[in-house]
Design brief:
By secondary structure, the protein is of the alpha/beta class. It is built from 6 helices and 10 strands; from the N terminus they run E-E-E-H-H-E-H-E-H-E-E-E-H-E-E-H.
């Protein structure tokens, strides 16, 4: 089974082609159009320009992911898309593009919470030995999507990626997640986490950004359950 993932909830436009067999996952390609391109083209990132960059990049990013994986649109069995929270315009572009492909190809469209997928990327990187975080199994994962000023969209997860509550918009201050920080390790990441490091000095910060590859396993679970 081949699944195309598209993630556009934040600054980057990301596409990945993943082959799923017997519950195992193989990344065939993972292509990201970074906000660095926006810096080079426009001399700085503002939300309107970053959002416009999604519309400029998405066709090429998806095409490159398919070509790198040596597959065509007709080879795809489903398309997964990050449904947010995140940038409204970025999400609109990614979801509209994915929806149009699914209508044309007559294949299922699977929506995945972008925070779930972000937590999945962190778990995958830890399992691959890319991240070295002590006592990971007891940690609480806290992906953060920037919502301007000191506000973030977030949800808490255990080390297996299971949500421990609902997605919420939080204004971060010294008392945020106080119970978790007192009783265990809070691991923060995502494009909203860097600005929170000084306020949450006892939290563990890791450099993880949204990626379409994080959609794959979650998308297969939803597909198997016919949640399309």
């Amino acid at each position: 089974m081949r699944i195309l993932g598209i993630e556009s909830s934040c600054d980057e436009t990301s596409a990945a082609v993943v082959r799923m067999e017997d519950g195992r996952r193989e990344i065939c390609s993972n292509i990201v159009a970074s906000q660095i391109d926006v810096h080079r083209l426009y001399g700085g990132v503002v939300p309107e320009i970053a959002s416009r960059r999604h519309s400029e990049a998405i066709v090429g990013v998806v095409r490159e992911a398919l070509e790198t994986a040596d597959v065509t649109y007709d080879d795809l069995d489903a398309i997964a898309v990050g449904k947010g929270p995140g940038s409204y315009t970025g999400l609109r572009i990614g979801v509209s593009f994915a929806k149009g492909l699914c209508y044309g190809l007559q294949i299922p469209l699977i929506a995945v919470c972008s925070l779930d997928a972000l937590a999945e990327v962190a778990i995958e990187d830890h399992e691959a030995g890319i991240l070295d975080v002590e006592a990971w199994d007891e940690a609480t994962l806290c992906p953060m999507v920037d919502a301007r000023r000191m506000e973030v969209y977030t949800c808490l997860y255990n080390a297996k990626g299971e949500p421990q509550g609902e997605v919420s918009a939080e204004i971060i201050d010294g008392e945020s997640f106080a119970d978790v920080r007192r009783n265990g390790q809070l691991v923060i990441f995502g494009n909203g986490a860097a600005k929170c490091r000084e306020v949450l000095q006892d939290a563990t910060y890791i450099n993880i950004t949204p990626s379409a590859r994080g959609l794959a396993r979650l998308a297969q679970q939803r597909l198997s359950a016919n949640q399309v």
